[in-house]
Amino acid sequence: MQGKIIKGIAGFYYIDTPSGKLYECRAKGIFRQQKIKPLVGDDVIMDVVSEDDATGNVSEVLPRKNELIRPPVANVDQALIIFAIVHPNPSYNLLDRFLIMMKQQNLPVVICFNKQDIAGEEEQRELEETYEKCGYKVLFISVANGNGIDELKSLLKGKTTVLAGPSGVGKSSLINLLHPKAQMETGELSRKIERGKNTTRHSELFHVEGLGPDTYIMDTPGFTSLYLKDVTIRDLPLYYPEFEMYEPECRFGGCSHITEPDCGVKKAVMEGHISHIRYENYKVLYEDLKNAKPVY
Ligand code: GDP
Ligand code: ZN
User: Fold this and answer.
1) How far apart are CA 54 and CA 13, in angstroms?
2) Residues 159 and 287 grouped into a single domain
3) Is the per-residue pLDDT at 226 higher than 50?
4) Which string of b and e fits 86-120 if b means at least 16 CB within 10 Å?
5) Which one of 41, 63, 116, 224 has the fewest CB atoms closer than 10 angstroms to its CB?
6) Domain harbouring 54, CATH code
7) Cα of 90 to ligand 2 centre, how many Å?
8) pLDDT per residue over 65-92, tens digit each?
9) Lowest mean pLDDT: which of 54-58, 78-82, 148-152, 193-197?
10) Are residues 134 and 182 in the same domain?
11) Which of 112, 117, 173, 220 gets mutated to test ligand 1 (max ligand atoms within 8 A of its CB)?
């Protein structure tokens, strides 16, 4: 039978199958045969050990579309980066770090701002302008009153989407809305296998209701604060796609857009073509990278 790994804990894999039945599986022999460790998001072939106990064994990991390093998951189609418009106000720096991390891993991104019900139009317009200008899809939603949820669902349909964002912005509320059984299942699983002792949370896929069998959203706890790995200071401008069209106007090739005179990017910021918010973040990240100790 084919299924999808939605969660892995302590040597057990939880496999979602087309009927909706969830099996608790081992993966005996997989590593020896295929030399890979099964990941959350993997499509697998499993043999049922007991229908009554809903247990089985994973016998094969099917070829992966892709594999993310952070978080370590397979077959992700896109990322949904979620912040609140207000309460809490977005950390632009963290948002840029998420954007850089997704771009590094070639994941398409949708930026979603929640709590539209309590935000003013002014705040919304600023965010929209800032991020649409650099080519991102920006969506405003309210989990509380349902605004924008249909549009969000149409973006999720048929895909596996990894959810990233700081705490307090409404991630759990959104997952509960998209997958009303989430809380209950998490409780059941932890009773069954960990007896509630271990409170460590793990990456987990949730099937989104009503959008067909292939729609999943992935919760990735601990995915809230980031440092930039494998980004060199020279590469940093590549992560700011809106700089590109002004770089030919820089006097120096390889301009860092920080201290050099006659910089096309700085000029564009001054003239309002590039967002101040984005440029200020660029400077902060530039300083961070300049002062970072190399990681070996
Ligand atoms: P998480 O930490 O990202 O998982 O955030 P939660 O889902 O726990 O939500 C944090 C707080 O924001 C809770 O008090 C929610 O009730 C509230 N919240 C979530 N979505 C909305 C929304 O759309 N509007 C408003 N006003 N509050 C929301
Ligand atoms: Zn420049």
Assistant:
1) 12
2) no
3) yes
4) beeebebebbbbbbbbbbbeebebbbbbbbbeebe
5) 63
6) 2.40.50.140
7) 27
8) 999 877 789 999 999 999 999 999 999 9
9) 193-197
10) yes
11) 173
